[in-house]
Amino acid sequence: MDLGVKNKTAFITGGGEGIGELAAMIMAQDGANVVVADRDQAAVEMVADKVKEHGVNSLAFSLDVTKADQVNEAVQKTVEEMGRIDMLIHIPGRGERKPFAKSERADWDFALDLNLFGVLNSAKAVLDQMINQKSGSMAFTVSDAGKVGELNNPIYSAAKGGVIAFSKSLAREMGRYNIRANCVALSAMNTPGGLKLRQVFADRYKSTVESIEKKILANYAIRRFGEPQDAANALCFLVSERASWITGQALSVNGGFSMV
Ligand SMILES: NC(=O)c1ccc[n+]([C@@H]2O[C@H](COP(=O)([O-])OP(=O)(O)OC[C@H]3O[C@@H](n4cnc5c(N)ncnc54)[C@H](O)[C@@H]3O)[C@@H](O)[C@H]2O)c1
After folding, report:
1. Same domain for 87 and 176?
2. Taking CB atoms and a 6 Å cutoff, what residues make up the pocket around ligand 1?
3. Torsion over CA of 93, 97, 98 and 103, rounded to 10 degrees?
4. Quick one: which of 11, 48, 106, 130 has the most CB atoms within 10 Å?
């Protein structure tokens, strides 16, 4: 399916690897210019070079989404160079994995800073430009934890639930400017973060990664882990012209884990 994004500009936070890199490639293949933003300078430059192989423009920014000034500067430079920002795909996020009873304020600050404030920084940074254009779309990466909660991941769940509620409110506030906001809710993934987590579980429960994986997959209708491509496909669809009447939704891409 042609996404209808030719000559548009996509700004992808967390674009340096995994889901974000694949999203950058989908966009570039369909003719969009792609801005790749991530923490690692070498990674963003590598992905931007790959994007350019598709004959489109690309910019690379090394930034931390929890730092509003860094995100604002990258967005400003993008508008100067590309003239517009049509799509925002926001990916960074991580869980703290600690029972609430044992958590401290520093844990809460970390989880909210990355998973909630990171999203707010990105959305706020692109909003004025999208309002001026009277068009734009955003897709935020969340988790089913934000819909149904998750054991030992309370603040992450709160942050992801907050992003879902934020995107619904933003969709209502910005619909008059033809700006859409949606979420993609993931579950157990074969991303570097997901693989690391299963090793943590194996160590914590004195088990093996294989045994942990078998137990996790028993909860999934489709008995495999999500691939980065599954997430990238959904994020790109939701910000594309093909989803022009979809806004305020949190689409679970989760192999039938939770069905709400
Ligand atoms: N991995 C899973 O099993 C899983 C499950 C449910 C939801 N999710 C969500 O999916 C998203 C991606 O997960 P992942 O495991 O691929 O994450 P990840 O830790 O692999 O990071 C994704 C990308 O974001 C970048 N990044 C991280 N922190 C950043 C920051 N502060 N500023 C700029 N870039 C930053 C990383 O360098 C990486 O390129 C997250 O929002 C996560 O909460 C993941």
Report:
1. yes
2. 13-14, 16-20, 38-40, 64-66, 91-94, 114, 141, 143, 186-189, 191-194
3. -10
4. 11
